Amino acid sequence: MAITFNQRAVDAQPFGVNAYRQRLLTESRLKGTKVLLDRWTLGPGAVIELGLAARDLAWFQLLEGEAMLASAAGSQTLTADQVAFLPPGFRGTLAAHSDAVVLYAEVPDAARFDPQLAAEPPQLRIVDWTREPVLDSEHDARKRIYLVTPKLFGTKAIKGEMIIYPAGTEASNHHHEGAEHFMYVLAGSGTAWANERPFNVEKGDLIWYADRERHYLKSNPLEEMRFVEYFVPGECTTIWAPGAPVCTWRPTGKDIRGRTAAREIAKHSSGDFAIPQDV
After folding, report:
1. Is the distance from CB of 244 to CB of 114 less than 8 angstroms?
2. Cβ neighbours of 204 (radius 10 Å)
3. What is the reported pTM?
4. Gap between the Cα atoms of 208 and 211, Å rounded
C-alpha cells in the first residue's frame, strides 16, 4: 500500500556542524527500500561531510538557499536551480553561509541496478535543471523536466524528473513494474490516488508507491502543484489502466524560464520501457 506523510511528522536530528537531518525514507520505515531519502536543514556556518562507499551513489538538490559543494575536483556554489550527482566513492563537504534546505537521496549498492557502474564509473556532475527542456503532455496540461537521467549523469540505476501540474490538472491512472517509485511535493496541493483510494497531498509530503500499485494525481483547482519523482532502478514498465491514454511527451524547445533550452529531447512515450537515448 502507498505510504505518505509530511516532513513535519519526522523528527530532526543533529547532523554535521549546525545542521539537522530528517530521515524520510529508511530501511526501518520501509523494509527493503532501494533508496534512502533525507531532508537536511543547514544553518549559518553549517558543514556536512559527504562520503559514499565504492558501490553507492547519491544525488541532491537544494530546495532553499545556497551551499558550497567542495571535493578534490574543486568547489562550486549551488542554488535551488541545480541537481548534484555524487558518484561511487565520492568524498567532499557541503557548507552553507546562511540558511539552506537540501533534499538528499542515496542508493546503496547501486551497481546491482547498472552493470556498467563498476566498469565505467560516472563522475561528479552538476546540472542546472532550469536550462533543461520542458516537455508538454499531449493529453493534459502537465509539464515535465528531467533531472536525473543516463544522458545527464551516466547511469541507468536511477531516473528523476520534476512534474508540474497547472491548477486543476489530472493525470491518467497507471502503475509501474520493476522500480521503486516515490514523489516529494515541492509546492501546491492536490489529491493523489492509490488503487483508487484518494488522499490529500501538500507541500512537504512524501508519497511512496509499491510496485504495481495503481496511482495518479490531480492538482488543487486553485493552485499549481509541483513535485519531484524518482525511480530506482531508472528503467521500468509503465502500465496504463484500461481506457486511460498512454502519456506522450512533446518537446517545447524552451526551458522553464522561456529561454531556448540547453539541449534537445525528442517526442517520446511513457509507455516505453527503455529510457530514450537523448534523455
Report:
1. no
2. 18
3. 0.95
4. 10
Name the residue among 193, 148, 141 with its Cα closest to residue 169: 141
Tell me the per-residue pLDDT of 38-93, one tens digit each, with 9 for 90 and over.
999 999 999 999 999 999 999 999 999 999 999 999 999 999 999 999 999 999 99
Q: Which DSSP string corresponds to the chain?
A: --EEEEGGGS--EE-SEEEEEEEEE-TTTSTT-S-EEEEEEEEEEEEEEEE--TT-EEEEEEEES-EEEEETTEEEEE-TTEEEEE-TT-EEEEEESS-EEEEEEEETTGGGG-THHHHS----EEEEGGGSPPEEESSSS-EEEEEE-HHHHS-SS-EEEEEEE-TT-B---EEEESSEEEEEEEE-EEEEEETTEEEEEETTEEEEE-TT--EEEEE-TTS-EEEEEEEESS--EEEEPTTPPPPEEEE-SB-TTSSBPSS----EETT-SSPPTT-
| CATH no. of 130-269 | 2.60.120.10
Among the residue ranges 67-81, 94-108, 116-130, the one predicted with the least confidence is 116-130
Question: What are the boundaries of each domain within the chain?
Answer: 10-128, 130-269
Q: Which three three-digit cell numbers place residue 34?
A: 532501494
User: Is the domain defined by 10-128 classed in CATH 3.90.550.10?
Assistant: no
